[in-house]
Amino acid sequence: MAILAAGSIAPDFDLADVEGESRSLGGARAGGQALLAFFSLECRACDLSYLFWDRMTEAYGDAGCPVLAISLDSSEAAHDFWDRSGVSFTVLADPGHGVTRAYGIECTPALFLVDAGGTIVASHDAFDRAALNALSQAIAERVGEPAVELGEDEAPAFSPGCVVHLATEQG
């Protein structure tokens, strides 16, 4: 299964953030849209993404597009990352990987822009500076804020994503 594409309905979810509060996609997109960012702490391409997700949170979060970063790691590891890094985006844990599977995540990072109606407007995986900048531009236009951009001097043009290996569910 490939990641869910633009035009697909985004599966709703309810996950705990690193402080134990329940967060849902429906609640997050109440302001108009939400950006979902699936990540793994062992992924180099994700390492390249965190600071830009943070900048996007600062630029667009209060304007109606929060960033929900969904960790494929344990709840404890996700909390340690959030606590240690000082990022401002919301970090959620998906311990059973049900949400990860529902979105068809095959590699990280994987991003989805979801509109107020729950439709995926854009999606991509791996680290692609041009795709990230296009996504940022699309969000900026939707929320009426200036776009933030990732410059050539800040990150490589592309870095392959990290393949996700999830345990097979036992029936």
Model description:
- The protein has 171 residues and is α+β, with helices and mostly antiparallel strands.
- It has one domain (27-163): Glutaredoxin.
- 30% of the residues lie in helices and 25% in strands.
- The chain contains 5 helices and 11 strands, in the order ββαβαβαβαββββαββ.
- The chain has helices spanning 25-28, 44-60, 75-85, 98-102, 129-143, and strands at residues 14-16, 22-24, 33-39, 67-71, 90-93, 107-108, 110-115, 120-125, 127-128, 158-159, 162-163.
- The strands form 4 sheets. Strands 5-4-3-7-8 form a 5-stranded mixed beta sheet.
- The longest helix has 17 residues, at 44-60.
- The mean pLDDT is 95.
Structural class: alpha+beta
CATH class: Alpha Beta
Q: Please state the average pLDDT score.
A: 95
> What is the number of E strands?
11
Secondary structure: elements and pairs:
Layout (H helix, E strand, L loop, with lengths): L13 E3 L5 E3 H4 L4 E7 L4 H17 L6 E5 L3 H11 L4 E4 L4 H5 L4 E2 L1 E6 L4 E6 L1 E2 H15 L14 E2 L2 E2 L8
Parallel strand pairs: 3-4, 4-5
Antiparallel strand pairs: 1-2, 3-7, 6-11, 7-8, 9-10
